[in-house]
Amino acid sequence: MAIQMAMSGHDIEQDGDIPLLGQKWIPADEKCIASARRFVRDVALDWKAADKVPAVAELLTSEVVTNALVHGMKALPVSSTIRIAVRRDGSLMTVEVYDSCVTIPRMRSAESMETSGRGLAIVQALACKWGWILHHHGKTVWFHLTAWPQSDPSVPLKLLP
After folding, report:
1. How, if at all, do strands 138-146 and 129-135 pair?
2. Membrane-spanning residues where (predicted)?
């Protein structure tokens, strides 16, 4: 498992060549985390991801969206939104969480009795790879899961426009 980061001057649509399976915008409101979790789980189920992938994708989405809301969106206007996108590249599912804050996510060590601070450690432990991309107006935190292990990566997924 590796952390990858990149600085980018590109728009959020820079991964437009990787098929988009679904996307959703939610308000910057902690009450909407459950909606983001359900969305990613439903996309994984709809696209017949492997056994435990929908549950893992749901958990990791919860962690990344929670980080965006708790650490990234506090100083931003209430009207700010978070965008969640699910993409497929061969056997990999990529979940991207975009917010308007340019604060870089950082992993921290939580003490045994602390009730928070383990989100990115969970992402690192369960994702194949994760990282972030800075944009002019925010960042995208993303993670990869091997969701379709029997997929032939030489045959790209084609979606209708």
Report:
1. antiparallel
2. none
Report the Cα 157 to chain-centroid distance in Å: 20
DSSP string, 93-150: EEEEEEES--PPP---PPPTT-SSS-HHHHHHHHSSEEEEEEETTEEEEEEEEE--TT
- Running DSSP on this structure, what letter comes out for residue 30? G
Q: What superfamily would CATH give domain 2-146?
A: Histidine kinase-like ATPase, C-terminal domain (3.30.565.10)
Strands 2-7 and 129-135: parallel
The alpha carbons of the chain give a radius of gyration, in whole angstroms, of 15
- Quick check: helix, strand or coil at residue 70? helix
Q: Is the pLDDT of residue 80 over 60?
A: yes
- Residue 65 near residue 142 (C-beta atoms within 8 A): no
125-155 confidence digits (pLDDT tens)? 999 999 999 988 889 999 999 999 875 555 5
What's this model's pTM, rounded to 2 decimal places?
Answer: 0.80
Helix (H, G, I), strand (E, B) or coil at 111: coil
CA 140 vs CA 28, 50, 70, 133: distances in Å: 15, 25, 15, 5
